[in-house]
Amino acid sequence: MAVILNANSLSYSYQPNQPVLCNVSLSVDTNTIMYLLGHNGCGKTTLLEVLSGLRAPQQGDVWLNGSSVYKLPSHRRAQRIGLVPQMHTPIFAYTVRDVVLMGRTPYLRLFGTPGREDHEIVDEAIEAVGLISQRSRSYTELSGGEQRLTLIARGLAQQTDVLLLDEPTAHLDPRNQRLVLEKVAQLAEQKVAFVISSHNPNSALLYAHQIAVMKAGQIVARGTPADVLTEETLSMSYDMPVEVIYNQEQVARAVMPRRIDTSNGGGLLSLP
Amino acid sequence: MRLIRAFNRRVKLYTRCSAQQRQTWLYRLVLLLPIPLAIYALGVGRYPISVEDVVRALYDYVFSRHDPNFQPDVVYNLITRIRLPRIVAAMLIGSSLAVTGAAFQGIFRNPLVDSNILGVTSGAGFGAALLLLLNANMLYVQISAFIFGLLAVMIAYFVSRLYYSAPLLVLTLVGILVGSFFSSLTSMLKYLADPLDTLPAITYWLMGGLNDVTSRDIPALLVVTSAGLVFMWGVRWRLNVLSLGDSEASALGLNPTRLKLLVIIFSTMMTALAVSVGGVIGWVGLVIPHAARTLIGPDHQRLIPASIALGAVFLLSIDTLSRTLWANEVPLGVFTGIVGVPLLLLILRVNKTGWR
Questions:
Q1: What is the mean pLDDT of each run of 10 residues along chain A (272 residues)?
Q2: Helix, strand or coil, per DSSP, at residue B243
Q3: Cβ pairs A/B, distance under 8 A
Q4: Is residue B88 part of a domain?
Q5: Do A194 and A253 belong to one domain?
Protein backbone atom coordinates (compact mmCIF):
# COMPACT_ATOMS: atom_id res chain seq x y z
CA MET A 1 0.00 0.00 0.00
CA ALA A 2 1.18 3.48 -0.82
CA VAL A 3 1.97 5.95 1.92
CA ILE A 4 -0.14 9.06 1.46
CA LEU A 5 0.57 11.11 4.57
CA ASN A 6 3.92 11.17 6.27
CA ALA A 7 4.76 13.17 9.39
CA ASN A 8 8.39 13.52 10.47
CA SER A 9 9.40 14.29 14.06
CA LEU A 10 6.72 16.95 14.71
CA SER A 11 7.10 19.17 17.76
CA TYR A 12 4.55 21.78 18.72
CA SER A 13 3.99 23.99 21.74
CA TYR A 14 1.42 26.70 22.40
CA GLN A 15 3.71 28.32 24.98
CA PRO A 16 7.51 28.15 25.07
CA ASN A 17 8.92 25.22 27.05
CA GLN A 18 5.53 23.51 27.34
CA PRO A 19 5.58 21.10 24.40
CA VAL A 20 2.22 19.59 23.48
CA LEU A 21 3.70 17.40 20.75
CA CYS A 22 7.18 16.01 21.09
CA ASN A 23 8.95 14.32 18.19
CA VAL A 24 5.83 12.71 16.73
CA SER A 25 6.24 10.68 13.55
CA LEU A 26 3.63 8.65 11.74
CA SER A 27 2.64 7.56 8.27
CA VAL A 28 -0.79 6.79 6.86
CA ASP A 29 -1.43 4.47 3.91
CA THR A 30 -4.15 4.90 1.30
CA ASN A 31 -7.45 3.14 1.99
CA THR A 32 -6.75 2.71 5.68
CA ILE A 33 -8.23 3.90 8.93
CA MET A 34 -5.70 5.00 11.50
CA TYR A 35 -6.85 5.52 15.08
CA LEU A 36 -5.22 7.91 17.53
CA LEU A 37 -5.81 6.81 21.11
CA GLY A 38 -4.68 8.47 24.31
CA HIS A 39 -5.77 10.23 27.47
CA ASN A 40 -7.41 13.69 27.58
CA GLY A 41 -4.90 16.41 26.81
CA CYS A 42 -2.30 14.05 25.33
CA GLY A 43 -2.24 16.11 22.15
CA LYS A 44 -4.57 14.22 19.78
CA THR A 45 -6.53 17.27 18.62
CA THR A 46 -3.36 19.36 18.33
CA LEU A 47 -1.76 16.59 16.26
CA LEU A 48 -4.76 16.56 13.91
CA GLU A 49 -4.58 20.35 13.55
CA VAL A 50 -0.86 20.16 12.83
CA LEU A 51 -1.36 17.33 10.32
CA SER A 52 -4.09 19.33 8.56
CA GLY A 53 -1.78 22.30 8.15
CA LEU A 54 -3.84 24.61 10.39
CA ARG A 55 -0.94 24.91 12.83
CA ALA A 56 2.65 24.92 11.67
CA PRO A 57 4.89 22.89 13.99
CA GLN A 58 8.02 24.43 15.48
CA GLN A 59 9.90 21.37 14.25
CA GLY A 60 9.30 18.68 11.68
CA ASP A 61 7.22 18.55 8.54
CA VAL A 62 4.14 16.83 7.12
CA TRP A 63 4.36 15.40 3.63
CA LEU A 64 1.22 14.79 1.66
CA ASN A 65 1.74 12.85 -1.55
CA GLY A 66 5.26 14.20 -1.74
CA SER A 67 4.65 17.89 -1.00
CA SER A 68 4.92 19.74 2.31
CA VAL A 69 1.50 20.65 3.75
CA TYR A 70 2.76 24.00 5.06
CA LYS A 71 4.16 25.13 1.73
CA LEU A 72 0.86 24.61 -0.11
CA PRO A 73 -1.43 27.65 -0.56
CA SER A 74 -4.36 27.29 1.83
CA HIS A 75 -6.95 26.43 -0.82
CA ARG A 76 -4.69 23.79 -2.42
CA ARG A 77 -4.06 22.32 1.01
CA ALA A 78 -7.80 22.15 1.67
CA GLN A 79 -8.23 20.33 -1.64
CA ARG A 80 -6.01 17.51 -0.39
CA ILE A 81 -6.52 17.17 3.34
CA GLY A 82 -9.69 17.79 5.32
CA LEU A 83 -10.32 18.20 9.04
CA VAL A 84 -13.73 17.31 10.43
CA PRO A 85 -14.09 19.07 13.77
CA GLN A 86 -15.33 17.44 16.94
CA MET A 87 -18.25 19.78 17.41
CA HIS A 88 -19.76 22.21 14.99
CA THR A 89 -21.93 24.90 16.51
CA PRO A 90 -23.66 26.74 13.70
CA ILE A 91 -24.94 30.17 14.63
CA PHE A 92 -27.43 30.17 11.76
CA ALA A 93 -29.77 27.31 10.84
CA TYR A 94 -28.15 26.21 7.58
CA THR A 95 -29.62 23.20 5.81
CA VAL A 96 -27.67 19.96 5.46
CA ARG A 97 -27.08 20.86 1.83
CA ASP A 98 -25.71 24.31 2.72
CA VAL A 99 -23.33 22.80 5.27
CA VAL A 100 -22.03 20.17 2.84
CA LEU A 101 -21.76 22.76 0.03
CA MET A 102 -19.25 24.64 2.17
CA GLY A 103 -16.88 21.74 1.54
CA ARG A 104 -16.56 23.05 -2.02
CA THR A 105 -15.02 26.34 -0.84
CA PRO A 106 -11.39 25.40 -1.68
CA TYR A 107 -12.39 25.01 -5.34
CA LEU A 108 -14.07 28.43 -5.65
CA ARG A 109 -12.55 31.74 -6.68
CA LEU A 110 -12.59 34.78 -4.36
CA PHE A 111 -15.94 36.07 -5.63
CA GLY A 112 -17.20 32.65 -6.76
CA THR A 113 -20.25 30.68 -5.69
CA PRO A 114 -20.87 26.93 -6.12
CA GLY A 115 -22.01 25.92 -9.58
CA ARG A 116 -23.91 22.96 -10.97
CA GLU A 117 -20.92 20.62 -10.82
CA ASP A 118 -20.38 21.50 -7.15
CA HIS A 119 -24.03 20.72 -6.43
CA GLU A 120 -23.67 17.31 -8.09
CA ILE A 121 -20.58 16.49 -6.05
CA VAL A 122 -22.40 17.59 -2.90
CA ASP A 123 -25.40 15.40 -3.71
CA GLU A 124 -23.05 12.44 -4.19
CA ALA A 125 -21.39 13.16 -0.85
CA ILE A 126 -24.75 13.39 0.93
CA GLU A 127 -25.83 10.16 -0.74
CA ALA A 128 -22.58 8.47 0.33
CA VAL A 129 -23.36 9.10 3.99
CA GLY A 130 -27.02 8.15 3.50
CA LEU A 131 -28.62 11.51 4.31
CA ILE A 132 -30.21 12.23 0.94
CA SER A 133 -33.72 12.33 2.40
CA GLN A 134 -32.60 14.83 5.03
CA ARG A 135 -30.75 17.25 2.78
CA SER A 136 -33.27 20.08 3.02
CA ARG A 137 -33.58 19.84 6.78
CA SER A 138 -31.89 22.29 9.08
CA TYR A 139 -28.59 20.99 10.48
CA THR A 140 -29.68 21.99 13.98
CA GLU A 141 -32.72 19.66 13.81
CA LEU A 142 -30.64 16.55 13.11
CA SER A 143 -29.67 13.89 15.63
CA GLY A 144 -26.09 13.83 16.89
CA GLY A 145 -25.15 10.95 14.57
CA GLU A 146 -26.68 12.64 11.53
CA GLN A 147 -24.82 15.84 12.39
CA ARG A 148 -21.49 13.98 12.39
CA LEU A 149 -22.39 12.31 9.11
CA THR A 150 -23.20 15.73 7.64
CA LEU A 151 -19.77 17.00 8.63
CA ILE A 152 -18.16 13.86 7.17
CA ALA A 153 -20.13 14.49 3.96
CA ARG A 154 -18.70 18.01 3.95
CA GLY A 155 -15.24 16.44 4.20
CA LEU A 156 -16.09 14.13 1.29
CA ALA A 157 -17.31 17.06 -0.81
CA GLN A 158 -13.85 18.55 -0.26
CA GLN A 159 -12.59 15.58 -2.34
CA THR A 160 -9.41 15.19 -0.33
CA ASP A 161 -7.04 12.23 -0.15
CA VAL A 162 -7.00 12.26 3.63
CA LEU A 163 -9.75 13.08 6.13
CA LEU A 164 -8.92 13.75 9.76
CA LEU A 165 -11.85 13.12 12.11
CA ASP A 166 -11.66 14.57 15.60
CA GLU A 167 -13.61 12.25 17.91
CA PRO A 168 -16.40 11.50 15.42
CA THR A 169 -18.29 9.32 17.89
CA ALA A 170 -18.11 11.46 21.03
CA HIS A 171 -21.52 11.88 22.73
CA LEU A 172 -23.14 9.33 20.41
CA ASP A 173 -25.12 6.29 21.51
CA PRO A 174 -23.85 2.85 20.36
CA ARG A 175 -26.24 2.74 17.40
CA ASN A 176 -25.15 6.14 16.09
CA GLN A 177 -21.49 5.29 16.73
CA ARG A 178 -21.92 2.20 14.57
CA LEU A 179 -23.78 4.22 11.91
CA VAL A 180 -20.92 6.71 11.62
CA LEU A 181 -18.07 4.19 11.78
CA GLU A 182 -19.61 1.73 9.30
CA LYS A 183 -19.89 4.58 6.80
CA VAL A 184 -16.29 5.54 7.47
CA ALA A 185 -15.18 1.92 6.93
CA GLN A 186 -17.06 1.77 3.61
CA LEU A 187 -15.59 5.08 2.46
CA ALA A 188 -12.07 4.01 3.40
CA GLU A 189 -12.41 1.03 1.06
CA GLN A 190 -13.20 3.38 -1.81
CA LYS A 191 -10.68 6.17 -1.85
CA VAL A 192 -10.04 8.13 1.32
CA ALA A 193 -7.57 7.53 4.12
CA PHE A 194 -8.93 8.39 7.58
CA VAL A 195 -7.15 9.45 10.73
CA ILE A 196 -9.55 9.27 13.66
CA SER A 197 -8.92 10.45 17.20
CA SER A 198 -10.97 8.59 19.75
CA HIS A 199 -11.41 7.69 23.40
CA ASN A 200 -12.90 4.34 22.55
CA PRO A 201 -10.35 1.51 22.18
CA ASN A 202 -13.20 -0.90 21.45
CA SER A 203 -14.15 0.89 18.25
CA ALA A 204 -10.46 0.93 17.31
CA LEU A 205 -10.53 -2.84 17.81
CA LEU A 206 -13.41 -3.09 15.37
CA TYR A 207 -12.51 -0.55 12.69
CA ALA A 208 -8.82 0.42 12.79
CA HIS A 209 -6.19 -0.86 10.38
CA GLN A 210 -3.45 1.00 12.20
CA ILE A 211 -3.36 2.46 15.70
CA ALA A 212 -1.09 5.05 17.25
CA VAL A 213 -1.26 5.38 21.03
CA MET A 214 -0.25 8.72 22.48
CA LYS A 215 0.82 9.73 25.94
CA ALA A 216 1.79 13.25 26.99
CA GLY A 217 2.57 14.48 23.49
CA GLN A 218 4.45 11.42 22.30
CA ILE A 219 3.52 8.31 20.36
CA VAL A 220 4.25 5.40 22.68
CA ALA A 221 3.03 2.56 20.48
CA ARG A 222 2.18 2.12 16.84
CA GLY A 223 1.03 -0.79 14.73
CA THR A 224 -1.92 -3.06 13.97
CA PRO A 225 -4.69 -3.49 16.54
CA ALA A 226 -3.32 -6.89 17.51
CA ASP A 227 0.11 -5.39 18.23
CA VAL A 228 -1.03 -2.29 20.07
CA LEU A 229 -4.21 -3.12 21.95
CA THR A 230 -2.54 -5.07 24.71
CA GLU A 231 -3.05 -4.78 28.45
CA GLU A 232 0.51 -3.58 28.89
CA THR A 233 0.38 -0.74 26.34
CA LEU A 234 -3.07 0.49 27.26
CA SER A 235 -2.46 0.36 31.01
CA MET A 236 0.73 2.35 30.51
CA SER A 237 -0.91 4.87 28.20
CA TYR A 238 -4.01 5.55 30.31
CA ASP A 239 -2.13 5.20 33.63
CA MET A 240 -4.61 2.71 35.01
CA PRO A 241 -5.19 -1.01 34.94
CA VAL A 242 -6.84 -2.19 31.70
CA GLU A 243 -7.94 -5.68 30.81
CA VAL A 244 -8.17 -7.02 27.26
CA ILE A 245 -10.68 -9.81 26.79
CA TYR A 246 -9.88 -12.43 24.15
CA ASN A 247 -12.13 -14.99 22.46
CA GLN A 248 -11.31 -18.69 22.06
CA GLU A 249 -9.13 -18.01 19.01
CA GLN A 250 -7.06 -15.58 21.11
CA VAL A 251 -8.38 -12.58 19.14
CA ALA A 252 -9.01 -9.49 21.29
CA ARG A 253 -12.75 -8.75 21.58
CA ALA A 254 -13.01 -6.02 24.18
CA VAL A 255 -10.99 -3.59 26.23
CA MET A 256 -12.19 -3.03 29.79
CA PRO A 257 -10.93 -0.81 32.57
CA ARG A 258 -10.42 -2.63 35.86
CA ARG A 259 -11.73 -1.43 39.18
CA ILE A 260 -9.54 -0.96 42.18
CA ASP A 261 -10.72 -2.98 45.18
CA THR A 262 -10.68 -0.51 48.07
CA SER A 263 -11.47 -3.19 50.64
CA ASN A 264 -8.39 -5.12 49.67
CA GLY A 265 -5.68 -2.51 50.20
CA GLY A 266 -5.91 -1.19 46.64
CA GLY A 267 -5.63 -4.51 44.80
CA LEU A 268 -7.44 -5.18 41.56
CA LEU A 269 -10.97 -6.51 41.57
CA SER A 270 -10.98 -9.76 39.68
CA LEU A 271 -13.60 -10.16 37.00
CA PRO A 272 -16.14 -12.92 37.43
CA MET B 1 -58.12 38.04 21.01
CA ARG B 2 -59.88 37.30 17.74
CA LEU B 3 -57.28 39.36 15.94
CA ILE B 4 -54.44 37.35 17.45
CA ARG B 5 -56.18 34.08 16.52
CA ALA B 6 -56.68 35.24 12.95
CA PHE B 7 -53.04 36.26 12.83
CA ASN B 8 -51.94 32.86 14.13
CA ARG B 9 -54.07 31.15 11.49
CA ARG B 10 -52.36 33.16 8.77
CA VAL B 11 -48.97 32.24 10.18
CA LYS B 12 -49.94 28.57 10.14
CA LEU B 13 -51.16 28.70 6.54
CA TYR B 14 -48.02 30.51 5.52
CA THR B 15 -45.73 28.01 7.18
CA ARG B 16 -47.49 25.00 5.70
CA CYS B 17 -46.35 25.32 2.05
CA SER B 18 -42.90 24.00 1.17
CA ALA B 19 -40.25 26.13 2.85
CA GLN B 20 -38.00 26.20 -0.18
CA GLN B 21 -40.71 27.25 -2.62
CA ARG B 22 -41.83 29.96 -0.24
CA GLN B 23 -38.30 31.26 0.18
CA THR B 24 -37.60 31.33 -3.55
CA TRP B 25 -40.76 33.30 -4.31
CA LEU B 26 -40.20 35.68 -1.44
CA TYR B 27 -36.61 36.19 -2.58
CA ARG B 28 -37.69 37.21 -6.08
CA LEU B 29 -40.39 39.47 -4.66
CA VAL B 30 -37.97 41.15 -2.26
CA LEU B 31 -35.46 41.86 -5.04
CA LEU B 32 -38.14 43.48 -7.22
CA LEU B 33 -39.68 45.58 -4.46
CA PRO B 34 -37.34 48.66 -4.44
CA ILE B 35 -38.08 49.83 -8.00
CA PRO B 36 -41.89 50.30 -7.82
CA LEU B 37 -41.51 51.71 -4.33
CA ALA B 38 -39.00 54.30 -5.53
CA ILE B 39 -41.32 55.37 -8.37
CA TYR B 40 -44.20 55.65 -5.92
CA ALA B 41 -42.08 57.64 -3.46
CA LEU B 42 -41.03 60.08 -6.17
CA GLY B 43 -44.70 60.86 -6.76
CA VAL B 44 -45.90 61.43 -3.20
CA GLY B 45 -45.32 64.53 -1.15
CA ARG B 46 -46.84 67.93 -0.57
CA TYR B 47 -47.09 68.30 -4.33
CA PRO B 48 -48.39 64.94 -5.67
CA ILE B 49 -47.15 63.87 -9.10
CA SER B 50 -48.62 61.10 -11.25
CA VAL B 51 -46.66 57.92 -11.96
CA GLU B 52 -46.66 58.79 -15.63
CA ASP B 53 -44.95 62.13 -14.97
CA VAL B 54 -42.43 60.47 -12.67
CA VAL B 55 -41.50 57.89 -15.29
CA ARG B 56 -41.27 60.53 -18.01
CA ALA B 57 -39.06 62.77 -15.86
CA LEU B 58 -36.77 59.84 -14.97
CA TYR B 59 -36.53 58.84 -18.62
CA ASP B 60 -35.72 62.39 -19.67
CA TYR B 61 -33.21 62.69 -16.82
CA VAL B 62 -31.36 59.50 -17.73
CA PHE B 63 -31.10 60.39 -21.43
CA SER B 64 -30.81 64.16 -20.67
CA ARG B 65 -33.51 65.15 -23.15
CA HIS B 66 -35.84 67.22 -20.98
CA ASP B 67 -38.25 69.31 -23.05
CA PRO B 68 -40.34 71.93 -21.19
CA ASN B 69 -43.03 71.67 -23.85
CA PHE B 70 -43.90 68.14 -22.79
CA GLN B 71 -43.33 68.46 -19.03
CA PRO B 72 -43.27 71.71 -17.04
CA ASP B 73 -39.90 72.62 -15.55
CA VAL B 74 -41.40 72.77 -12.06
CA VAL B 75 -42.41 69.12 -12.13
CA TYR B 76 -39.16 67.99 -13.73
CA ASN B 77 -37.03 69.91 -11.24
CA LEU B 78 -39.08 68.83 -8.26
CA ILE B 79 -38.57 65.20 -9.20
CA THR B 80 -34.94 65.24 -10.30
CA ARG B 81 -33.44 67.92 -8.05
CA ILE B 82 -35.45 67.70 -4.84
CA ARG B 83 -36.95 64.24 -4.48
CA LEU B 84 -34.55 62.05 -6.47
CA PRO B 85 -31.37 62.85 -4.44
CA ARG B 86 -33.22 62.24 -1.21
CA ILE B 87 -34.74 58.98 -2.40
CA VAL B 88 -31.45 57.72 -3.83
CA ALA B 89 -29.71 58.65 -0.55
CA ALA B 90 -32.39 56.87 1.50
CA MET B 91 -32.04 53.70 -0.57
CA LEU B 92 -28.23 53.71 -0.59
CA ILE B 93 -28.01 54.38 3.15
CA GLY B 94 -30.64 51.74 3.91
CA SER B 95 -28.81 49.18 1.77
CA SER B 96 -25.46 50.07 3.34
CA LEU B 97 -26.65 49.78 6.91
CA ALA B 98 -28.56 46.54 6.26
CA VAL B 99 -25.86 44.74 4.30
CA THR B 100 -23.08 45.70 6.71
CA GLY B 101 -25.29 44.50 9.57
CA ALA B 102 -25.79 41.16 7.81
CA ALA B 103 -22.06 40.83 7.12
CA PHE B 104 -21.11 41.71 10.70
CA GLN B 105 -23.62 39.24 12.12
CA GLY B 106 -21.96 36.60 9.93
CA ILE B 107 -18.31 37.34 10.68
CA PHE B 108 -18.86 37.99 14.40
CA ARG B 109 -21.05 34.87 14.59
CA ASN B 110 -23.52 36.92 16.57
CA PRO B 111 -27.07 37.77 15.48
CA LEU B 112 -27.15 40.75 17.88
CA VAL B 113 -24.52 42.99 16.32
CA ASP B 114 -24.55 45.50 13.48
CA SER B 115 -21.82 47.63 11.96
CA ASN B 116 -22.00 50.06 14.93
CA ILE B 117 -20.40 47.48 17.21
CA LEU B 118 -16.89 48.81 16.49
CA GLY B 119 -17.81 52.40 17.34
CA VAL B 120 -18.14 53.89 13.86
CA THR B 121 -21.45 55.66 14.55
CA SER B 122 -20.35 57.13 17.88
CA GLY B 123 -17.12 58.32 16.29
CA ALA B 124 -18.99 59.91 13.40
CA GLY B 125 -21.48 61.51 15.80
CA PHE B 126 -18.62 63.07 17.73
CA GLY B 127 -16.96 64.30 14.54
CA ALA B 128 -20.17 65.97 13.42
CA ALA B 129 -20.95 67.46 16.85
CA LEU B 130 -17.45 68.91 17.07
CA LEU B 131 -17.83 70.92 13.87
CA LEU B 132 -21.47 71.82 14.56
CA LEU B 133 -20.25 73.32 17.82
CA LEU B 134 -17.87 75.47 15.78
CA ASN B 135 -20.72 76.52 13.44
CA ALA B 136 -18.93 75.04 10.44
CA ASN B 137 -20.30 74.56 6.95
CA MET B 138 -22.41 71.37 6.48
CA LEU B 139 -19.82 69.94 4.05
CA TYR B 140 -17.10 70.08 6.69
CA VAL B 141 -19.46 68.57 9.23
CA GLN B 142 -19.93 65.59 6.91
CA ILE B 143 -16.22 65.21 6.24
CA SER B 144 -15.43 65.39 9.95
CA ALA B 145 -18.14 62.78 10.71
CA PHE B 146 -16.68 60.45 8.09
CA ILE B 147 -13.10 60.82 9.36
CA PHE B 148 -13.99 60.35 13.03
CA GLY B 149 -16.10 57.30 12.15
CA LEU B 150 -13.09 55.67 10.50
CA LEU B 151 -10.84 56.83 13.32
CA ALA B 152 -12.99 55.16 16.01
CA VAL B 153 -12.81 51.78 14.25
CA MET B 154 -9.08 52.13 13.63
CA ILE B 155 -8.50 52.81 17.34
CA ALA B 156 -10.61 49.77 18.25
CA TYR B 157 -8.76 47.61 15.74
CA PHE B 158 -5.24 48.61 16.71
CA VAL B 159 -5.89 48.45 20.45
CA SER B 160 -7.34 44.95 20.04
CA ARG B 161 -4.19 43.89 18.17
CA LEU B 162 -2.27 44.33 21.42
CA TYR B 163 -3.96 41.18 22.69
CA TYR B 164 -3.27 37.91 20.95
CA SER B 165 -5.90 35.66 22.43
CA ALA B 166 -9.55 35.66 21.29
CA PRO B 167 -9.02 38.53 18.81
CA LEU B 168 -12.67 38.80 17.79
CA LEU B 169 -13.96 38.96 21.35
CA VAL B 170 -11.36 41.57 22.29
CA LEU B 171 -12.17 43.56 19.14
CA THR B 172 -15.88 43.59 20.03
CA LEU B 173 -15.14 44.61 23.59
CA VAL B 174 -12.71 47.35 22.61
CA GLY B 175 -15.16 48.52 19.91
CA ILE B 176 -17.91 48.92 22.49
CA LEU B 177 -15.49 50.79 24.78
CA VAL B 178 -14.33 53.15 22.04
CA GLY B 179 -17.98 53.70 21.07
CA SER B 180 -18.98 54.69 24.59
CA PHE B 181 -15.89 56.87 24.90
CA PHE B 182 -16.91 58.86 21.84
CA SER B 183 -20.54 59.00 23.05
CA SER B 184 -19.29 60.53 26.30
CA LEU B 185 -17.23 63.05 24.36
CA THR B 186 -20.33 63.93 22.35
CA SER B 187 -22.31 64.44 25.56
CA MET B 188 -19.51 66.68 26.76
CA LEU B 189 -19.78 68.75 23.57
CA LYS B 190 -23.55 68.99 24.01
CA TYR B 191 -23.01 70.21 27.57
CA LEU B 192 -20.64 72.89 26.29
CA ALA B 193 -22.89 73.87 23.36
CA ASP B 194 -25.01 77.00 23.25
CA PRO B 195 -28.53 75.85 24.27
CA LEU B 196 -30.21 78.24 21.84
CA ASP B 197 -28.11 77.66 18.77
CA THR B 198 -25.58 74.82 18.52
CA LEU B 199 -27.19 72.40 20.99
CA PRO B 200 -30.37 71.99 18.93
CA ALA B 201 -28.25 71.65 15.77
CA ILE B 202 -26.21 68.84 17.34
CA THR B 203 -29.28 67.14 18.80
CA TYR B 204 -31.18 67.20 15.52
CA TRP B 205 -28.16 65.99 13.59
CA LEU B 206 -27.75 63.04 15.96
CA MET B 207 -31.41 62.09 15.46
CA GLY B 208 -30.71 61.56 11.78
CA GLY B 209 -32.58 62.78 8.77
CA LEU B 210 -32.37 63.19 5.04
CA ASN B 211 -34.01 66.62 4.71
CA ASP B 212 -30.67 68.31 4.06
CA VAL B 213 -29.58 65.90 1.36
CA THR B 214 -28.84 67.57 -1.98
CA SER B 215 -27.58 66.26 -5.29
CA ARG B 216 -24.09 67.35 -4.15
CA ASP B 217 -24.05 64.49 -1.61
CA ILE B 218 -24.92 61.81 -4.11
CA PRO B 219 -21.69 61.17 -6.12
CA ALA B 220 -19.51 60.21 -3.12
CA LEU B 221 -22.33 58.21 -1.59
CA LEU B 222 -23.00 56.44 -4.87
CA VAL B 223 -19.35 55.53 -5.52
CA VAL B 224 -18.42 54.28 -2.04
CA THR B 225 -21.71 52.51 -1.41
CA SER B 226 -21.73 50.81 -4.80
CA ALA B 227 -18.16 49.61 -4.31
CA GLY B 228 -19.12 48.27 -0.89
CA LEU B 229 -22.30 46.60 -2.13
CA VAL B 230 -20.42 44.94 -5.00
CA PHE B 231 -17.77 43.68 -2.57
CA MET B 232 -20.37 42.29 -0.15
CA TRP B 233 -22.24 40.66 -3.00
CA GLY B 234 -18.96 39.18 -4.24
CA VAL B 235 -18.00 37.59 -0.94
CA ARG B 236 -21.55 36.38 -0.17
CA TRP B 237 -20.47 32.74 -0.34
CA ARG B 238 -17.40 33.30 1.81
CA LEU B 239 -19.57 34.93 4.50
CA ASN B 240 -21.32 31.56 4.88
CA VAL B 241 -17.97 29.88 5.50
CA LEU B 242 -16.74 32.66 7.84
CA SER B 243 -19.86 32.23 9.96
CA LEU B 244 -18.61 28.72 10.85
CA GLY B 245 -15.77 30.22 12.86
CA ASP B 246 -12.07 30.71 12.22
CA SER B 247 -10.71 27.21 12.51
CA GLU B 248 -13.35 25.64 10.27
CA ALA B 249 -12.98 28.44 7.73
CA SER B 250 -9.23 27.90 7.55
CA ALA B 251 -9.69 24.13 7.34
CA LEU B 252 -11.84 24.87 4.28
CA GLY B 253 -9.00 26.83 2.72
CA LEU B 254 -9.89 30.44 3.57
CA ASN B 255 -7.75 33.06 5.26
CA PRO B 256 -10.35 34.23 7.80
CA THR B 257 -8.29 37.04 9.34
CA ARG B 258 -7.63 38.76 6.02
CA LEU B 259 -11.16 38.32 4.73
CA LYS B 260 -12.70 39.63 7.96
CA LEU B 261 -10.43 42.66 7.88
CA LEU B 262 -11.60 43.41 4.34
CA VAL B 263 -15.24 43.08 5.39
CA ILE B 264 -14.62 45.41 8.35
CA ILE B 265 -12.85 48.00 6.15
CA PHE B 266 -15.62 48.08 3.54
CA SER B 267 -18.38 48.09 6.18
CA THR B 268 -16.74 50.93 8.08
CA MET B 269 -16.36 53.07 4.98
CA MET B 270 -19.99 52.48 4.02
CA THR B 271 -21.37 53.08 7.51
CA ALA B 272 -19.23 56.16 8.15
CA LEU B 273 -20.39 57.70 4.89
CA ALA B 274 -24.02 56.77 5.55
CA VAL B 275 -23.86 58.39 8.99
CA SER B 276 -22.08 61.48 7.67
CA VAL B 277 -24.90 62.04 5.15
CA GLY B 278 -27.95 60.87 7.08
CA GLY B 279 -26.97 61.22 10.72
CA VAL B 280 -27.41 58.46 13.27
CA ILE B 281 -30.00 56.00 11.94
CA GLY B 282 -30.31 53.02 14.23
CA TRP B 283 -32.06 49.68 13.93
CA VAL B 284 -31.73 49.16 10.18
CA GLY B 285 -28.53 47.11 10.50
CA LEU B 286 -30.02 44.94 13.21
CA VAL B 287 -33.62 44.47 12.10
CA ILE B 288 -33.30 44.11 8.33
CA PRO B 289 -30.90 41.12 8.29
CA HIS B 290 -33.23 39.35 10.75
CA ALA B 291 -36.24 40.11 8.59
CA ALA B 292 -34.38 38.89 5.50
CA ARG B 293 -33.30 35.71 7.30
CA THR B 294 -36.89 35.04 8.33
CA LEU B 295 -38.12 35.46 4.80
CA ILE B 296 -35.47 33.71 2.73
CA GLY B 297 -33.27 31.68 5.12
CA PRO B 298 -29.76 32.09 6.49
CA ASP B 299 -27.75 31.37 3.31
CA HIS B 300 -25.70 34.52 2.63
CA GLN B 301 -25.89 33.89 -1.12
CA ARG B 302 -29.47 35.13 -0.86
CA LEU B 303 -29.26 36.97 2.43
CA ILE B 304 -26.84 39.61 1.12
CA PRO B 305 -28.89 40.62 -1.97
CA ALA B 306 -32.11 40.42 0.07
CA SER B 307 -30.64 42.65 2.81
CA ILE B 308 -29.57 45.18 0.20
CA ALA B 309 -33.08 45.28 -1.28
CA LEU B 310 -34.95 45.21 2.04
CA GLY B 311 -32.67 47.85 3.58
CA ALA B 312 -33.45 50.17 0.67
CA VAL B 313 -37.17 49.43 0.94
CA PHE B 314 -37.26 49.91 4.71
CA LEU B 315 -35.41 53.21 4.89
CA LEU B 316 -37.19 54.61 1.83
CA SER B 317 -40.58 53.71 3.33
CA ILE B 318 -39.68 55.26 6.67
CA ASP B 319 -38.30 58.39 5.02
CA THR B 320 -41.35 58.73 2.79
CA LEU B 321 -43.64 58.34 5.80
CA SER B 322 -41.61 60.82 7.83
CA ARG B 323 -41.88 63.50 5.14
CA THR B 324 -45.54 62.93 4.26
CA LEU B 325 -47.37 61.94 7.45
CA TRP B 326 -47.25 65.27 9.22
CA ALA B 327 -46.47 68.84 8.26
CA ASN B 328 -43.32 68.70 10.40
CA GLU B 329 -40.88 65.91 9.59
CA VAL B 330 -40.22 63.30 12.23
CA PRO B 331 -36.43 62.73 12.55
CA LEU B 332 -35.51 59.57 10.66
CA GLY B 333 -33.41 58.03 13.45
CA VAL B 334 -36.37 58.33 15.83
CA PHE B 335 -38.87 56.91 13.36
CA THR B 336 -36.73 53.85 12.48
CA GLY B 337 -36.73 52.96 16.17
CA ILE B 338 -40.48 53.50 16.55
CA VAL B 339 -41.20 51.31 13.53
CA GLY B 340 -38.17 49.02 13.91
CA VAL B 341 -38.86 47.72 17.41
CA PRO B 342 -42.44 46.52 16.76
CA LEU B 343 -41.20 45.06 13.48
CA LEU B 344 -38.47 43.12 15.30
CA LEU B 345 -41.03 41.84 17.83
CA LEU B 346 -43.26 40.73 14.96
CA ILE B 347 -40.32 38.96 13.33
CA LEU B 348 -39.51 37.16 16.57
CA ARG B 349 -43.16 36.10 16.77
CA VAL B 350 -43.29 34.67 13.24
CA ASN B 351 -39.73 33.49 12.97
CA LYS B 352 -38.71 30.31 14.69
CA THR B 353 -35.91 29.42 12.35
CA GLY B 354 -33.10 31.25 10.67
CA TRP B 355 -30.75 31.24 13.58
CA ARG B 356 -30.26 28.69 16.30
A1: 89 90 92 94 93 92 90 93 86 92 93 93 92 90 89 93 92 87 90 92 93 93 92 91 88 84 65 52
A2: coil
A3: 85
A4: yes
A5: no
